[in-house]
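input
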Amino acid sequence: MSLISETIRPSGPLQVERAIADFRGGYPVVLEEGGEAFLVQSIENLPDAYRSALEKLAGGAAHLVLSSARLRKLNITHTDIGCIPLKELDIPTIERLALTPDARLDGPLQAPVWADRVALELARLSLVLPAVIVIPLKRGAEVDPDMTRVPAEAVRRYRKWRVRRIAPVSRAFVPLEGALQTEFVVFRGGEGLRDQVAVIVGTPDLSRPVLTRLHSACLTGDLFGSLKCDCGDQLRSTVRFMAEHNGGILLYLDQEGRGNGIANKIRAYRLQAQGYDTFDADEIIGFDQDQRHFDFAVEMLRQLGVTQVRLMTNNPRKIAALREAGMNVVSDQRVTGRPTPQNAGYLRTKRDRAGHLLEAGDLEPDDEKT
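output
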């Protein structure tokens, strides 16, 4: 049974998935490599009951790991992650260092070790803040025997493993307004434990370049019609265009907030309300411009029989990412939404700071056009 178990249920990825669940729930996880072990704990949802136990376990040796993006906001020019020694687990101080826009760091940084990089990767997989408390465990240290222990290498390889494992699990026709012949194909995997959806509009000719869009989920825009972005307009106009032009495939990807997750997206929105643009707000909470991966999207297209695409996007990064993953991008075309007084600044920021392919006319709200 051990051979069958390891073949069908490889232990490394399963341990990572347990670690993701624990990390999101506010529980600590133990990372192991080369005879060393480190306890890692997200700063989110840290129960008071754990704090004293963690502090006793740390014995003054804990440190806070922050991303290079967050360090820049602490006025530290740093291209690598950084570690801040913690003499005590003072949660208000830790939260200030991780989240406050005008926070500054007084003391020196500590050189990162392997566990620090792996801890931040686990945080990103878990869609929590990229700010982690790391405690080196001495040999024989008493920790809860039920605590999830995961090999560091399993975390490093997890994303690639998930790409190889993505597969369709269900499909059905779902008539849409303006696109009556539409089929939804649900894939499992790609980004952690989440599901991804391929929306096949009409009957695209797979022997020719297929109209294709990679659409990252946007709860606020797609579902609630938020005026802060143009996502919902792009989603619906793409489906209509495909229905009117011999069909296409829209991949609806669970990558809320450019891969940061809905909780971090709303944190960034709160900062935007204080005057920060979308990228500065993300940087304040520890994220670079874009955390998304698209290699699994290419695998979805391949499994649907697509070998060449006409990509509908304004984002040159998506074009490059598909080509790097081996997809033949024959051409690309713009997808515009409705500019509003609330999203005009956001659209300009995407054009000016991320190179999105938007023309001046795409940025003017209707009531400002002459």
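quick obs: Residues 1-6 have pLDDT under 50 and may be disordered.
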